Amino acid sequence: MPHSPHNPARPADTLVSVDNVSFGYGPRTILSGLDMQITRGSVVVVMGPSGCGKSTLLGLIGGRLAASEGRVFFDGGDVAALRRRELFALRKRMGMLFQSSALLTDLSVFDNVAFPLREHCGLPESLVRNLVLMKLHMVGLRGARDLRPAELSGGMARRVALARAIALDPELILYDEPFAGLDPVSLGVTLKLIRELNDALRLTSVVVTHDVDEGCRIADYMYLLGRGTIIGHGAPQEMLHSGDPEVAQFMQGMPDGPVPFHYPAPDYRAELLDAGGARS
Amino acid sequence: MNALAAIGRFTLGGVYHLGRCGVFLCTMLAVISHAWRRFALVVRQLYFAGVMTLLITLVAGLFVGMVLSLQGYYTLVNYGGESALGLLVALSLTRELGPVLAAVLFTGRAGSAITAEIGLMKATDQLAAMEMMATDPVARVVVPRFVAGVLAVPILTLLFNVVGVLGGYYVGTVQLGVDSGVYWASMQNGVDVFEDIGNGIIKSFVFGFVVSWIMVFEGCDTEPTAEGISRATTRTVVVGSLSVLGLDYILTALMYGGIS
Ligand SMILES: Nc1ncnc2c1ncn2[C@@H]1O[C@H](COP(=O)(O)OP(=O)(O)O)[C@@H](O)[C@H]1O
Ligand SMILES: [Mg+2]
Q: What is the ipTM of this complex?
């Protein structure tokens, strides 16, 4: 992409850099002034409460959403400046795991993993078969290839989606809430897979989650989102022992703190006393 | 003032919806060539739509033909014109009832199902996942369903007409005693290939286009929740069926005159 503007401040080993990005759905601002550097080969965990815009951030990195301000760079190229064809070429270099797994329900497990290969590679079917079996073997589901997505448990579906996400040997994988709703065993498997795939295939991983324990176990580096912006970042140990009250509240899961327990409301006493007079 | 504002909002909402619908058609037509490149998918969708709609189309066609024959006979016999029964049944079916009813049945059965299917794919992120796998969901999911719909409605119309004529034949000749040779002969003499059958086919293509457009648009435009899907499905049936009836009047007026 010779014409795409380059980010001058980008260190050589940064794969994705988010540069002062703001975004809103309509008039409602969700993210503002976001700055992130994602180093090649690392597992970067982005944490934050539900609804703070984590999935939105992944949409911005994947080019499905366009920032209203600031820019997102992938390997030096501005993602939002790409034309559709170039964007599709870029997406072959990234895999994404959706929270809902997003397996194509009318295809079998095998065909789901084969989908990106058949769409883009034009390989002979015998080679597609071997590649698919390899990917499924990596996630431990080679034996499940003939099942339908509806027959899979949540954890298995996510592993199939993972096999599909790595089918094209991407450089970057985006994980949206990979730990949500998993039983302890599936959780352990998922943690192990994210780390092993990242190291074995020399991937770069961005994991979005609200689970502090799992996030800390897997992260090389962490970003904490809150109030629509980044309220803290650092290695997991630094984050756990952070003195910042906002960071500490989230990391230790305290019910009250800078983020109040109560949703903004009029004075409790006044409202209760008032209720006798004016029923609405 | 509130009522006025509500009318304004309703109108704006409607115009906005219509606009998105038009833009959607353009995006779809821009990649319509994928219907050829992915012809296997079109055939697959045609098969599904056919399986869903075939039986009800045949049953409906049979009964409509029978009741046409019955009613037509009792009217014609007053003027001694029962020899024109075959013509009456055939013209009613090929010009109006076949295209309209087949399209309405298709909307209710296959159209609503396809809207729900696409809506569910959207709600479960399948369309977004395709996009992230560098596959255009409009080319992969929408275009095959649309093209299959455009092709399915005329085929179903044809079957509807054939079964209807046979149903009319059964009632007219076996039950009411019209001569079977007369039934066929009046049809053969009176039905024009271009004027009647041709226009009927044009109608059914237009209906197929509009109904398929509505069903895939509503699917893609679904708000990705359970209520959103049910609302989109309802809208496909209501808007699709009313569009067919409205368009039928316009097309009839254009084809056979009536408005000068
Ligand atoms: N398509 C959309 N249109 C409007 N608002 C949205 C849309 N998607 C998400 N939002 C809103 O944006 C906020 C952030 O959403 P999201 O990125 O999904 O949060 P998270 O993944 O952190 O839970 C939420 O408040 C949500 O209601
Ligand atoms: Mg989310």
A: 0.86
Total count of domains within chain B:
1
Name the domain count of chain A.
Answer: 1
Check CB contact of B179 with chain A, cutoff 8 Å.
Answer: no
Given this model, what pLDDT does residue B215 score? 96
Evaluate whether residue A4 is within a structural domain: no
Tell me, yes or no, whether B5 lies in a domain: no
What predicted TM-score, i.e. pTM, was given to this entire model?
Answer: 0.89
Please give the number of the atom of ligand 1 that sits closest to the Cα of A53: 17
Q: Chain A residues within 8 A (CB-CB) of chain B?
A: 62, 64, 88-89, 91-92, 94-96, 98-100, 102-105, 115-116, 119-120, 161, 164, 168
CATH, residue A83 = 3.40.50.300
- Domain of A104 in residue numbering reads as 14-253
Residue B84 lies in a domain: yes
The DSSP result for A192-249, as a single string, is HHHHHHHHHTT-EEEEEES-HHHHHHH-SEEEEEETTEEEEEE-HHHHHT---HHHHH
3-state secondary structure of A170: coil
pLDDT means per 10 residues, chain A with 280 residues, are 45 84 89 90 91 91 90 88 89 92 93 93 91 92 92 90 92 92 87 90 92 90 89 88 84 80 84 66
For ligand 1, atom 4, name the residue with the nearest CA.
A25
- Distance between CA atoms of residues B14 and B8, nearest Å: 10
